[in-house]
C-alpha cells in the first residue's frame, strides 16, 4: 500500500548530513520539475549522515509516467521511513537500496534500487556512533499512515484499524491474520534473484490479497532477513503487486502482516492458489 515510482526515477540526490533531517531532490519521468525533499528523520546506520546520489533507468518522454506521477507532489514534506543502501551493518535489508518515506500529500512512498544505482557522495558517520532506527517509531509511522487513510475514507472508528497517529482500535487487535508464510511455502519459494531475467516466465508461488480492497501480491521469490547474529528477523519477498497499477517490487513479511484494509481486515493467503507465470497473471506487462 504505497506509491512505488521506481521505474520512473531518472536521478536524484538525498542528504542526511544534518542529522534528523533528509533533504534533496529527485527527477522523475512524467514530471517537468524536480521533486524537492524536506523530511524529518535519518537514514539507517549504513548511510547515516551521508549524501547519496541515485541513478534511475527512466527516460523523460513516457506517457505511462505522466499518468502515474500526475498527482505526485513536487514538494515532499513528511517523515523518513526506512532509508538504506543495504550495506553493513544491514539493519533492515541487504544487497539493495530501499528508500521509504511518509509524505504529507502522497502518503507512503517506496523506491527500490540496485546498489550500483546508489553512490555515496560523502562518508556516513561511524555505525558505532549511532543507534539502529527504532522499529517502534516505524510502526508508529505506519499506524499514522493507515489512520489518515481511514479518516479520508470516512471509515467508522469501530471498523478502522486506527483513527489517528496514537490511537489503535482495540477491537481490531482481536482480528488476527492467518499465517502467510508456511514451512511448505518456504520450501517451494525460490530465493531472491533466483528467477532474475525470466521476465514473464517467472513463476508466482504465493498469492496474498486484501479481502476488503483491491490490493494483491503475487510472490515469485523470497529470502530471510537476518541480523548480525544470523537470526531471522523478517522475510523479504519479490513479485508483482496490483493496487492502483500493476508493478514489480519488494515487500517484507512484517510489512504485509501490519497492513490492514479499509475495513480493518488483515492480509490473507489464497489457499487455493496454483503456481502461474507472471505473463499468465498480467499478460499486458510482458508483450
What does this protein look like?
The chain is α+β, with helices and mostly antiparallel strands and 287 residues long. It folds into two domains: 6-129, no CATH class; 175-285, no CATH class. It is built from six helices and 15 strands. The protein has an eight-stranded mixed β-sheet, covered by helices on one side. A five-stranded antiparallel β-sheet has the order 13-12-11-10-14. Strands 9-15 form a two-stranded antiparallel ribbon. A hairpin with a 5-residue loop joins β1 and β2. The chain is globular, with a radius of gyration of 19 Å. Residues 163-176 have low confidence and may be disordered.
Any low-confidence stretches, pLDDT <50, length ≥5? 163-176
| Distance from first to last alpha carbon | 26 Å
User: Major sheet: order of its strands?
Assistant: 7-6-5-3-2-1-4-8
- How would the global form be characterised? globular
- Give a count of the beta strands, DSSP E runs of length 2 or more: 15
Order of helices and strands: EEEEHEEEEHHHEEEEEHEEH
If you average the pLDDT, what whole number results? 85
- Structural class by sheet pairing and helices: alpha+beta
Residues in helix, %: 10-25%
Rg over C-alpha atoms, rounded to the nearest angstrom:
19 Å
Strand content: 25-35%
Number of helices: 6
What about the largest sheet?
A: 8 strands, mixed
